[in-house]
Amino acid sequence: MIRSGAELRTAMAGGALLLLALTGCSDSEPASIPEPPAQGNVLDLAEVLTPAEEQEISSLIDERNASTDAARVAVLLVEDADGSIEDYARDVATSWGVGDDGADNGVLILADTGERELRVETADGVREQFSDGDAEDVVTDVLEPAFADEEYAEGLIEAVDQVYLYAEGGEPVPEPVDWVLFGSVAGVSTVVVGGIIGWVVAVSRRRRREADEEIRAAEQADPQLRLTEQQRNAYRSYRYGHRGDDAITNPAIWLPLYIANPALYSGGGGSGASGSSYNGGGGFTGGGASGSY
């Protein structure tokens, strides 16, 4: 049977559409989801944080995770989310398992530095205390101005603090502006904020030195004991969150426990808390808030 030219063109067009459907081609492909950081709760693919700032933010999250089950926060900075930042944040948070299994208490703070977009993605459980309106306040009042001024670490530190504050049932106390005293107060505030940040950094460094000294002492006592860099970082995180009398201060005793249960012995402590924010969490159905700077 000889087909007409019109029939052939119709058949070819139908075949092209079928091939397009089978191969899943589309105008744009979603951005790939990165692996969560091997250690810590911060992944800076945009490279806007110094290693010290990244460690400072991660240690702050470790500390808050050790003191409460109300939230589990993770931070991701990318250069291009390639599409809807809401969809990307939800996919990343779900893939990483941000939060505790069954608690739906995860929060992902995401920044796309290429598109200058921000997102605080919240799981269903944490939204009972940390509402979408609260998330919008964190984005507009904290993250947007800080990122606009390229004060990335400062903005993320304050945002993390506020997320945990809201999740535990509190809220930031608004301070009325007294324009008469604004000039002097601004100077004092700068000193105070700088002092707080300096104190956090000093505490983090001191606890890191203490953990390193314990590792060196254990390795000197047992030449066969050699921790990998990943294990060293996990021990530092564990010791940062465990300061009580029941804390394990000998890496030789800690190591087999860590190998058996990395989530429990890499940070955090009682009541199921863990330094890591990736504990099989879920419940990300679209809660949170977005913004730009």
Automatic annotation (TrEMBL):
<feature type="transmembrane region" description="Helical">
    <location>
        <begin position="179"/>
        <end position="202"/>
    </location>
</feature>
<keyword id="KW-1133">Transmembrane helix</keyword>
<keyword id="KW-0812">Transmembrane</keyword>
<dbReference type="Pfam" id="PF04536">
    <property type="entry name" value="TPM_phosphatase"/>
</dbReference>
<feature type="domain" description="TPM">
    <location>
        <begin position="42"/>
        <end position="163"/>
    </location>
</feature>
<protein>
    <submittedName>
        <fullName>TPM domain-containing protein</fullName>
    </submittedName>
</protein>
<keyword id="KW-0472">Membrane</keyword>
<dbReference type="InterPro" id="IPR007621">
    <property type="entry name" value="TPM_dom"/>
</dbReference>
